[in-house]
Amino acid sequence: MKQVTDIMEEKALPIIDKIYHDGFIQGIVTATLPKVAVEHYLKADALYLENFSDIYALLLAKSENKDEKNFFLSQINFVLNEEIAAHQTLAKYIGRDYHSIIQGGEWYPTADHYIKHMYYNAYAYGMAETLSAMAPCPWVYKKVAEKILQNHTLADSHPLKDWVTFYADGLVDECLSAYYQIINRLAETMNETQKKRLVKNFLESCEHERKFFNMAFTQERWELEG
């Protein structure tokens, strides 16, 4: 019998193919990603990751399991202090200092919608619902990076190869494994409606991931009056 996380991934695979063929990822493959797209992405993603770590903190407070607490602590450290390596690769590609780019980072409509989707699940439901909305963040990057390496041989001189290998080398596997163990364990006592919510959360966040890349590529802005 399939676990709920198997269903999540199976249903979301077509979205990975769409993300791969969209302009942002193809710009990474061909090393033609516009400077403005990189800057837009980094400004938004820096704020996104800060909030992502805050959601981990919410889960940390809710957990009654020491191993889970240590996992959430390790992920807060990873998001705040280690994932910066991938961002620095993008900053180097456009010849700018990463920290100067993200100063005064901006909160664009798509990023705003995405993070609120996760916060909503954290406050309205439980740990499984929250993690089902968070899981596409590492999963999408892993699958897209793997797809790039399956379809292309990136030369060592490729300026964005390190960005691809950062996510493709199995770094997020342990994270996803922990997510899925918690989700599947909690799903065992859920009814079908609750399980469907988990799958829906995952699919929605996969779409948010696609829109996040496109947001940067198209230079999405708020159209506010005044």
Task: Characterise this structure.
With 226 residues, the protein is an all-alpha fold. Helix content is 77%, strand content 0%. The chain contains twelve helices and no strands. The longest helix has 28 residues, at 35-62. The model has no long low-confidence stretch (mean pLDDT 95).
**What is the chains' assembly state?**
single chain
Strand content: under 5%
* Class of secondary structure makeup: mainly alpha
- Determine the fraction of residues in helical runs and give it as a percent range: over 70%
Shape verdict:
globular
- Roughly how many Å is the radius of gyration? 17 Å
Distance between the termini: 56 Å
Secondary-structure element series: HHHHHHHHHHHH
Residue stretches low in confidence (pLDDT < 50, at least 5 long) are none
Number of strand elements: 0
Average pLDDT rating? 95
| Total of DSSP H or I helical runs spanning 4+ residues | 12
**Biggest beta sheet summary:** none
Condensed summary:
With 226 residues, the chain is mostly helical. It is 77% helix and 0% strand.
Features:
77% helix
What's the layout of helices and strands?
Blueprint: H1 4-21, H2 23-30, H3 35-62, H4 66-82, H5 84-93, H6 98-102, H7 109-124, H8 127-134, H9 136-151, H10 161-168, H11 173-187, H12 192-217
